[in-house]
Request: fold
Amino acid sequence: MRNILEVSDLCVSYGKVEALSNASIKVGEGQIVTVIGPNGAGKTTMLSAIIGLLGSRGTVNFDGRLETTPDVEHLVACGMSLVPEKRELFGEMSVEDNLELGAFHRYRNGDRRYRETMAEVYEIFPRLKERRTQMAGTLSGGERQMLAVGRALMAKPKLLMLDEPSLGLAPLITREIFRIIAELRRRGVSILLVEQNARAALAVADYAYVLETGAVAMEGPAAALRDDPRVIDTYLGLGGKHQDMLAA
Amino acid sequence: MDLDIALILTQDGITSGAVYALLALALVLVFSVTRVIFIPQGEFVAYGALTMAMLQQGKVPGTLWLLVAMGVCVAALDLFRVLRGASSDGLASSLGWSLGYPLLLAALVNFLPASDSLLVQAALTLAIVVPTGPLLYRLAFQPVAESPVLVLLIVSVAIHVSMVGLGLLFFGAEGARTQPFLDAQFALGSVSLSGQQVWVLLASAGLIVALWLFFGRSLYGKALRATALNRNGARLMGFSPVFAGKLTFLLAAFIGVLSGILIAPVTTIYYDTGFLIGLKGFVAAIIGGLASFPVAAGGALLVGILESFSSFWASAYKEVFVFTLIIPVLVWRSLTSHHIEEDE
Amino acid sequence: MNTTRSAAALPLPAAAPAGIFCARNIVLGFVALLAFAPAVLPEFYVTLLNYIGLAAMVALGLVLLTGVGGLTSFGQAAFVGVGAYTTAVLTTSANLPGWIAWASSPWLALLVGLALTALIAVILGSLTLRLSGHYLPLGTIAWGISLYFMFGAMESLGGHSGLSGIPPISVFGWTLDEGREIFYLIWAFLLLAVLTTQNLLDSREGRAIRALKGGQVMAESMGVDTSRARMIIFVIAALHAATSGWLFAHLQRFVNPTPFGVHVGIEYLFMAVVGGAGQVWGAIAGAGVITILKQWLQDWLPAIFGTAGNFEVIVFGLMMVLVLHRAKDGLWPLFARLVPAAAPLRKIDAAAKPLPRKPMPPAGEVILEAKNVTRKFGGLVANNEMSLSVKAGEILALIGPNGAGKSTMFNQLSGVDTPTSGEVLFRGQSIAGKDSRAIARLGMSRSFQHVRLLPKMSVLENVAIGAHLRGSQGVIPAAWRLDRAEEARLLREAALQVERVGLGEFMHAEAGSLALGQQRILEIARALASDPCLLLLDEPAAGLRLKEKQALGDLLRRLRGEGMAILLVEHDMDFVMGLVDRVVVMEFGQKIAEGLPEEVQKNPAVLEAYLGGVE
Reply:
């Protein structure tokens, strides 16, 4: 199987603090790969560095092309999409305008078929169709997340990166979001999923990485990690001594 | 004062108010997309008017050489970056715009016979002055695009100061007026309207509608609005802030130059007239909180009418009145906002 | 890292440089050169120096306003005009109305001019200073233009032709009617202004002023009235400008509106920025560079271009853009590098009298209580019916997964935000509607999730901001060094807190040079300096190494032992479990569990919340 994304030895520093050190991950085509880990482990930093929102050292190989200095606009045009943790919607614009903007680079490159994609997005998220003239800022938490994912899908991405899609959502909506993530894989989108909700993420993913204090601490098939006692340690700190060793 | 005088003053006020409205729109646009408080907006008005006047006198305007010089600087910067190892993608097209276009235009202006057609002169004026907008963004603002608003403002003021000096160099201290587009007079009840006033009003209205369509309907317009609302969000859609900045400055320069062409037949424009005109646009933009387009446009009409009436009552204090108008506006703004915020 | 360590570890007394290049000697040398200048220099250069001095005085005000305070004014020239016109009118009118006739001497006219300027500045300041950053500069352009046109329009001010026949100033019977003579007065005023400004910045009020740029939220939460601090520097800058105007009028013996236009105001700002807007001496450097360059360019440029005109502005504008692109700190750092004068480290007087402390509430008293706090943002319920309490001598941890609403709750508790319903009581008083300053005064002190400190200030000074409310000396005592006894007590208290949290070796290092974990500890020291009875800590252990975490834990235990109430929001479970007395767990904005750490850890709802409930 071909890898759509290969990241090797990615490092990010904020001033003197190294937020990410030598992280290496791979995402196979058509796979869901998840990165789990406690708060502050560097998960969001990793996604921001991969897409070029943050400066980094290391290499990012996307869709067979080596990006020495990842650049957002370029990577988006090449088919990478990020649904950020903060959603970053255009609050004072309608749902439909938000979706249209998701297809901006396609429009710029002369692809006028984004209306069809919009119909597909409405099919996946019927709620958005009901609200399409409403301002994005007036949506509820779950609807905002749907819009953020829908907007990213408008770009017809080869790789969809989701940062904490369940963040702050009630269990019922979280379940719905994860159902959709599984559905997207069925449609052939490769997905890199960053989650704090470890169980849900491991249930849906093919492969998983555990990130701790800026470094990959464990990796393996999602099914194997699901029952690993060390994963539970990481989350609840039940005598998690290895964490201290890493920190020291 | 009788009713006729009041009508004439109102009509004058609305005409200048329409131009202030255009400038206010440009200022709100530039600020919301790039956070630059665009003090040199008025210089584009003066450059537009005076370039047009020079073309009418059959002279080559200095602004053409400014365009060439700025293009050369941008090309040099681009080449330098590539030499330092940056990617050379798109270098050819950017060199074409920064070097090819100005040189071609210079050749055209210098070697083709001068045209007597006002439309050709206007088009040439736009072709010469408007591209300096995005070039200006590239040279002065792009390198410090992430700086605090205050730094951008000081850069903006510095550019204004330089542009006024250059204006004096290009056009001299003499003022100029251009030929009117339309010499007719229209009677509207007891008031007569000059053809040029009708032109100003129609063109302003047309431009406002065009901008409204651009921002409401076109994807590029929406992308600019999106950048103003959420820069990071727009970047993630593949819309680069650099491109947004250049596009915004292009629009602002276009609005400025067009305003200059419109008012040049009605008012004598000097090299430093632009500053006061631009600032009146600012007073209007501040009335709109540097955010609301319709309120800014309404504010512009208010400024225009206040100006024309105060020039009748106490012409020496005309400017004092207009700029003092900002005080009640600021009071109102300070009463409606009262939380401590960090100025980024 | 290592370099800061070794620099900071220098023993205190030896740190002051002993050589002839100490700051004081350089200043003395400069003054001596100035004193001889009029005697040896030709008339032209003396005049040039006079103008540099006048401009530097205005630029100095802008250094304080823009460089230190982060506010900008393009309208300083108008204040110069107010000073100049006031003295011009008062000293030239033959028949002043009786009530003001006493002010016909230049010195009394100076007082009137300063009073008038202060009045105008207070009015303009109260209109614009509360608005966010960019309205002030725009407002200054507007009133700068208004005042300029007013000078030209008013008949009583001589219109555009101005007023002439202004008498020279006399000092103790010595009439300063030549450039060589008034030179001494100009530079004496300027050096005095520099000295007092420097003194002011190195004081309690000065730290508040220096916090304006990038530290307002923090300063307010330490009890600093930032609006007052903004007003203070705005008025001081205006007074400097008016003084320059007064001297200008008596040097020229004639005034007209031209030197007070908004473009001259812009030039003053350029001087401050080119010189180095953060440094007091940068004002003189900037005024010197711009004034000399202007003289030179005015000779050359018209010759090059073949026509007359003020072409120097083209160069000034481009120079400003270059300075802002390439050297944001201006030229002063370049000058300063030529002369290696080290600033003396601040002395800590261990013998200073300790500051009085508030009595600690008895252990077990409820200090902070939240009752059914609900906070909605539109349709989003961020906190739902949250109740909790913290007692004196207890550490309570608020934990929960990301997005659970902990930060919102922290904001309700610290008074940054007001609940939609429910209330928060601090020592029995509702804190609803109280601003951060009032809350700080009550004895609540906090740290921030995203560290908020002033990176260019030393660790000691950062902590001293925490003690702001424990001092009272204002601007004037600070400018004239009458505040030293109190200042020593404040610095001693700050130094004690720095030592207490274990940052003693970094006492004089720049706060920004510390590692993130140490910066968090610094925030705790700053909070402690305010003598609180409740500490609210937002993720204090994030980014700390194991040893540092242990030290922090020990410190918090000690504080608890002294009767302090501590509430911490934390993600680091290891840290929380071994330290705190009780835990409150949040999810979806609600409290899902409360109890002893061991109990909470086994609670199924908590396990669910942290590991995720969706199968």
Observations:
- The CA atoms of residues 25 and 293 of chain B lie 6 Å apart.
